[in-house]
Amino acid sequence: MRTRFRLxxxxxxxVGKHTSARLVAKKFRGSRVIDIxxxxxxxxxxxxxxxxxxxxxxxxxxxxxxxxxTKTNRKDLIxxxxxxxxxxxxxxxxxAIALRRSPYELISVFQKRxxxxxxxx
Length: 121
Fold this sequence. Notes:
Layout: E1 6-11, H1 17-27, E2 32-35, H2 36-42, E3 46-51, E4 54-57, H3 59-72, E5 77-80, H4 84-87, E6 95-99, H5 103-112, H6 117-120
Parallel strand pairs: 1-5, 1-6, 2-5
Antiparallel strand pairs: 3-4
């Protein structure tokens, strides 16, 4: 039995993480994309209130959820999210990709998404 593929795609907001994850998942049929933000929301790992940057997550809880997925899921997994470096233990990860984009291009992306100036920094 082959070892399951574990990919992490991370980077700042607006760089194309989710688009890249979908493209990779198409190539690796049967793989599962796990959006870290959605995982946190679905498992009540959101901390009360918001700070000036937006919603905060319970890093320890999300780390445990990801560790459980990594150890128990039989599918190839693609983890996607800007919080990946804070919640994923690199042990057991096959490869990690950090996407970047010109800050000048990101300004228009953030404006289209109606991000606050604090979040856009």
